[in-house]
Design a protein that fits this description.
The protein is of the alpha/beta class. Helix content is about 40%, strand content about 20%. It has 7 helices and 13 strands.
Length: about 260
């Protein structure tokens, strides 16, 4: 059977450093690169043009998945692999994807495990691995709800699982982690505002207790103790701690909106 084609769909914003590393990791299996850029201030679009002319420049949406879906919709290959610029495809994963492209009997979408790099190491516990993400699907079978930054695609059809990981390098250093952490907190604060709009005083009071006390403690105990984040050395503690206090910080930001 002739190998089916593969589009790499990606949304970008100020990714001139990451984009070549991402695209180079898949250029030997990709038939098409599709880029939707959110008006980057750096050379992202110029870099993208080295790989493709299929580039759309639009506004940088608060829910970035809107731009990701634009890229998915522009893809013309049989299959779509939606990636972020700070991800690369491991050699083992490439072989697994190619085997799917060559096969007649496959699912319509696939969950892919992902390894997340955090201040000098991949986090293997604390709920951070395998960190499955639904990224590979037949063209027309996968769609993002476009409501939340951490949402997964919805597949029209059968879904399977791949064994080998995407490699995710989301933070250049701790400062870049804090910047992204703060942006996500701003988004969560807005979501809290929308959720509590018009709600009763009693429900608002419970939400305050939930975000300021219950959620932070619960999250830390789950990630650091139950999911053994402590085995990832001091990086595991730092990740669990900041993941927990994001609820408190986001709630305080909501009060200041």
């Amino acid at each position: 059977m002739k190998r089916q084609t593969l589009s790499i769909a990606i949304a970008t914003f100020n990714e001139e450093k990451n984009l070549p590393i991402c695209f180079d990791s898949v250029k030997d299996i990709a038939d098409e690169f599709v880029v939707v850029d959110g008006e980057s201030k750096d050379r992202t679009v110029e870099v993208a043009k080295r790989y493709t002319q299929k580039i759309k420049v639009t506004t940088n949406k608060p829910v970035f998945h809107v731009n990701k879906q634009m890229a998915i919709d522009m893809a013309t290959s049989d299959w779509v692999l939606q990636m972020d610029a700070d991800e690369t495809v491991s050699e083992e994963l490439k072989k697994e994807i190619v085997s799917i492209l060559k096969s007649k009997k496959t699912a319509d979408g696939y969950w892919i495990p992902r390894k997340n790099w955090f201040i000098g190491r991949f986090l293997m516990k604390g709920g951070q691995y395998p960190d499955y993400t639904l990224r590979l699907y037949r063209n027309g079978k996968g769609k993002l709800p476009q409501k939340d930054v951490h949402e997964q695609a919805v597949i029209d059809g059968e879904v399977g699982y791949l064994k080998n990981p995407l490699l995710h390098y989301p933070y250049e250093d701790f400062s870049s982690y804090i910047r992204k952490w703060n942006r996500y907190n701003n988004l969560l604060a807005t979501q809290i505002k929308d959720q509590l709009e018009g709600k009763s005083f009693l429900l608002k009071g419970f939400s305050a207790i939930d975000y300021l006390l219950i959620k932070p403690i619960f999250w830390f105990l789950i990630t650091y103790i139950r999911h053994k984040g402590f085995t990832d050395s001091w990086q595991g503690f730092v990740f669990s701690f900041f993941s927990s206090v994001r609820f408190q910080v986001s709630y305080i930001k909501f009060l200041l909106l």
